[in-house]
Amino acid sequence: MILRGKNIVLGVTGGIAAYKIPMLVRLLRKEGANVKCVITEETKRFVSPLVLDTLSGNRVESKLVENDQWIDHVHLGKWADAFVIAPLTANTMSKMVSGHCDNMLMATYMSCEAPVWVAPAMDLDMFKHPSTDENLRWLESNGINIIGPEAGELASGLVGKGRMTEPQDIFDALCEYFDIKGPLKGKKVLVTAGPTYEKIDPVRYIGNYSSGKMGFAIAEEALNKGAQVTLITGPTKLSCSSAIERIDVESAEQMLNACLESFKEADIAIKAAAVADYRPKVLADQKIKKSGDLTLELEKTTDILKTLGAQKKPFQTLVGFALETNNELEYAQKKLEKKNLDFIVLNSLKDEGAGFGVDTNKITIVDRNNKIDKFELKPKPEVAKIIIDKIIELKP
Ligand code: CTP
Questions:
Q1: Is the pLDDT of residue 396 over 70?
Q2: Ligand 1: lining residues by beta carbon, under 6 Å
Q3: Residue 287 burial by CB count (10 A; 0-12/13-18/19+): exposed, middle or buried?
């Protein structure tokens, strides 16, 4: 889904081609975009705001002032990752050039820092008019992306250039812009990050100091390389790009279930999460009151990485992490074998600046051919790049 999480503002002006815009809204939504429509008073004659409202799942905006109430006239412009005006009438086109800001659509346009696309639509003589020609050139030289218009039959019955480009082609132009091309294009990447929390009672848990920074950096790097990324994360304060499908979990068991589901479809899985190895055998329904010493009985959680390793298909790449304090290489090699990994990323707690909570990491990569690569201390985004490059090197 190329448009996953992208915020697209659709400006619809009052031209006959506005009746085709519900189709564009549907195409954008199906491709994962969030869509908000802003229209002019004239637009309402050509397409029902209710239809745009229903299909976009968001309230259609048209007014700068409503019931004597001030409306934030720049919020749509600030929200947008892309602003598309379709159809664009000659009237609104000239307003864009002169900065004539007399409605919500124009206020959105003038406050928008995102890239703008316009699909002009008008009768052939209006399109040929020198003022239209000049306005189009002004728009183009000011970085506006112009789509169409096309030649064909017009609403007036005349035939010539002026038809709005079809919704499918406008949609394709947006997809082309947002489509990240890279060596992992077409690959589905699953990344886990953060700690897990294992509940003791309703107010307490067993956890660890993992911040999730390493896993989040890997997810972002995979996205930059063109992959479709699912990030399954334990509790963290971090945020990620909206283009990443993020699944929040708390316990090792929840992470296991989410991983089993995602792994079926994944080409690559990178398990950077610090999963709890043990959880309380019994979860108390009520808060445990203090009395004398307390002994908690723990049971093992399922090793998620090992479970995935056992299911791994030949086309899948599986990467694990190992955090060790001693006999690092030997333990890492054993884990690589036992969990059926393609390579393992080893952190040693002996290394200053490596491990939990910090912004840097010092890693050694051991691969299935027993090739060992040691790296210097680096910021986690650079470490993420090394890990993703290693995956690309192993399976181009
Ligand atoms: N891991 C997992 N599920 C668990 C425990 C760990 O998937 N229940 C994964 C981690 O995400 C990591 C790798 O296993 O990629 C290694 O974790 P680590 O804690 O270093 O090793 P363990 O296999 O748990 O072994 P030990 O704690 O004995 O070193």
A1: no
A2: 252, 271, 273, 275, 277, 301, 303-305, 320-323, 335
A3: exposed
Mutate to test the pocket of ligand 1, among 263, 305, 347, 366 (most ligand atoms within 8 A of CB): 305
Nearest CA to ligand 1 atom 27: 277
Please, are residues 219 and 181 in contact by the beta-carbon 8 Å criterion?
A: no
**Average pLDDT of span 50-58:** 98
Helices (H) and strands (E) in the chain, counts: 13, 23
Per-domain residue ranges of the chain: 7-180, 188-394
> Catalytic residue among 145, 208, 224, 340, which?
208
Average pLDDT for residues 20-36, to the nearest whole number? 97
- Do the domains spanning 7-180 and 188-394 agree at the CATH topology level? yes
8-state DSSP, 114: S
CATH code for the domain defined by 7-180 = 3.40.50.1950
Fold of 188-394: Rossmann fold (3.40.50)
Res 333: pLDDT: 94
Candidates 197, 277, 341: which one to mutate for ligand 1, based on the most atoms within 8 Å of Cβ?
277
The pLDDT-based confidence of 309 (bands split at 50, 70, 90) is: very high
